[in-house]
Amino acid sequence: MHDLPECEHLLLTVEGPRLNLTFNRPDQRNAINSKMGEEFAAVVGWLEKSADDIRLVVLRGAGGHFCAGGDIKERRNMAEEEVKAGEDPILERNKAAGLAFLNFENLPQTTIAVVEGSAFGGGMGYACMADITIVAEDARMGMPETTLGVAPAQIAPFVVKRIGLTRARQLALTGERFGGQKAFDYGIAQYMAPDAEIDAKLEEVVASVMRCGPKANAATKAIMLKVGSLPQEDMVAFSAAKFSELNRGIEGKEGQSAFAEKRKPAWQVAAEGERK
Predict the structure, then answer these.
(1) 142 and 228 assigned to the same domain
(2) Per-residue pLDDT tens for 247-275?
(3) Who is most buried in 42, 127, 138, 176, counting CB within 10 A?
């Protein structure tokens, strides 16, 4: 396994095949500044190269808050900077953030966001990028960018994909703030739990993911994310190739043998065998 990136504003802990990624600016409700954004992009790059070792990523925030969005003070200061010919640091930062979000969505690992406290702007975006989102009943969410005179530029596509264009427009164009129940009802989160039970719910969901084959999950995610971007016949061919690869692979053989033998599959053994 490659060494983890060194981070100032992210806490990274590896537990076997699981990476816990914790936003760690608790005094700022984990608002995203430039440094945190760069660190997040570096961790995503590390994860892209670590699919054989890490199969699950848990996003969380330190200090009882998930992520309050972009660091508004930093953004305002950047807006006062003189723009040199051909250079726009705000545009470049925003574009870099969008690419990191896109790469995160397309990771082979299964990603889980645990939303507690504040999750606004970019924080809501992270919740919509994750494969699975668990929200605390007392969480507060929304896209307040338009109330600040800017746009939810890079998170908007992920929100639209998550909850649909009609609802996404309504939330963005009103700046509505809402709690955990509405986040669940809108489809942002697939699970909701009282704040005191959020850890138990997370471990329950993690256990469900771990019952699945890691390569099967990665392939399934890749297939689903291609929907709408490939012509139908190309989609059929892409899916068939993934299925054939899995069925002939050690993991597919292990899973189907375990079913026939009425035992639990040994995914780690299968994964080790394929790396040899």
Answers:
(1) no
(2) 999 999 999 999 999 999 998 644 444 54
(3) 127
Q: Is residue 4 part of a domain?
A: no
Domain count across the chain: 2
Domain of residue 221: give its range: 214-275
pLDDT of residue 74: 85
Assess whether pLDDT exceeds 80 at residue 95.
Answer: yes
pLDDT at 86: 77
Reported as a single tens digit per residue, the pLDDT across 140-197 is: 999 999 999 999 999 999 999 999 999 999 999 999 999 999 999 999 999 999 999 9
Q: HEC states along the chain?
A: CCCCCCCCCEEEEEECCEEEEEECCHHHCCCECHHHHHHHHHHHHHHHCCCCCCCEEEEEEHHHCCECCECHHHHHHHHCCCCCCCCCHHHHHHHHHHHHHHHHHCCCCEEEEEECCEEECHHHHHHHHCCEEEEECCCEEECCHHHHCCCCCCCHHHHHHHHCHHHHHHHHHHCCEEEHHHHHHHCCCCEEECHHHHHHHHHHHHHHHHCCCHHHHHHHHHHHHHCCCCCHHHHHHHHHHHHHHHHHCHHHHHHHHHHHCCCCCCHHHHHHHHHC
Q: Which amino acid is at 213?
A: G
- Clarify whether residues 227 and 182 are in a common domain: no
Q: Tell me what pLDDT residue 89 has.
A: 85
Pair 27, 15 in one domain: yes
Structural domain ending residue among the three candidates 193, 210, 227:
210
Which tens digits make up the pLDDT trace of 34-62? 999 999 999 999 999 999 999 999 999 99
Among 210, 227, 256, the domain boundary falls at 210
Residue 273: per-residue pLDDT: 43
